[in-house]
Amino acid sequence: MALVLLFVFCWFIGLANATFNVTTLSFDEGYSPLFGHGNLVRSPDGHSVRLLLDVYTGSGFISSSMYRHGFFSAKIKLPSDYTAGIVVAFYTSNGDVFEKSHDELDIEFLGNIEGKPWRFQTNLYGNGSTNRGREERYSLWFDPSKEFHRYSILWTPNNIIFYVDEVPIREVVRNDKMGGDYPSKPMSLYATIWDASSWATNGGKHKVNYEYAPFTSEFKDLVLEGCPTDPNPIRTLSNSSTCTDTDAWLETRDYAVITPKSRSAMRRFRQHYMYYSYCYDTVRYPVTPPECVIDPNEKQRFQDSGRLRFGGSHRKQMRNARRKRRSRPTSNISTEQNDM
Length: 340
Ligand SMILES: *[C@@H]1O[C@H](CO)[C@@H](O)[C@H](O)[C@H]1NC(C)=O
Ligand SMILES: *[C@@H]1O[C@H](CO)[C@@H](O)[C@H](O)[C@H]1NC(C)=O
Ligand SMILES: *[C@@H]1O[C@H](CO)[C@@H](O)[C@H](O)[C@H]1NC(C)=O
Ligand SMILES: *[C@@H]1O[C@H](CO)[C@@H](O)[C@H](O)[C@H]1NC(C)=O
Known about the structure:
340 residues, Jelly Rolls, seven-stranded antiparallel sheet, Xyloglucan endotransglucosylase/hydrolase, EC 2.4.1.207, apoplast, xyloglucan:xyloglucosyl transferase activity
């Protein structure tokens, strides 16, 4: 087993020698503070930013524009040591503009008790599909609190790819049967750190311990490549042709192309590090969701694993943090998990 993991590790490192050809932005070029302003600390050169969580508040930032399709990426270093109950989220959403029909693409890092590694999940929602979570959960082949790694979300009209460094870890290919569940409206990029004591670690059993505060996450080498659009929903929706050139350009980028080599890296990652996939959760979804590509080997493992369902939402926290009065539906998933 150790040998196999060493091999997998080397495979990922090999792939990571290539880096995406992207243009990085300073904080002020692309982003604005979102909440917990005192806990958002820019570096003197303006090219990196720290988001802190202390007993008073978390913090977050948002892209200054909304984008209709794009590549959203940052190098991130997570808080170390005791991080139970903490969530660091890097995601796209338009929930502030389309309250009942929002779209969302998530990378959410879930803290853990001391000595246990960080885990994370990816998810997507389209047109308000909050009762149909599409979570996958994974561990990592490195300690994300020790150094920066690049995490990315690519969203095109045809597919969505989540990346860790240059390794694609999940691809969702658009499928007509998904209908509105495939994100289609302009979204902003969000990065947040917040207290998710109620669900993040072992279904809420382990809460944030503020003796270890402040918890610090760091973001640098920020990338936003895509089609900035008017956030006004009426104008944006009445003219969807304006982004076709950028969409075509996105398809030519290196991060939009999964080579045979990176496809095998994705397969290996999923074999070794994915420990939950909604596609195999037949209790939750007796009918397999239309975009799921069932891999017989994966299916075998997940059938045998007996893993429980889980869930949660950062929307509730965001609402509190920003003192919003609106209520937004949250997913109706059990918060049970016994995955570690
Ligand atoms: C990187 O991308 C830019 C466009 O953003 C392009 O002009 C340049 O040739 C690319 N460089 C490489 C090495 O592919
Ligand atoms: C999105 O949801 C609304 C109802 O909330 C529905 O009227 C509309 O047709 C849906 N759009 C798509 C593309 O499915
Ligand atoms: C939509 O965008 C295209 C390209 O920018 C423009 O030529 C056209 O006039 C726009 N249509 C409307 C209704 O705004
Ligand atoms: C949520 O789940 C509970 C328990 O499974 C169920 O009783 C309830 O009807 C569900 N609510 C919605 C809105 O689906």
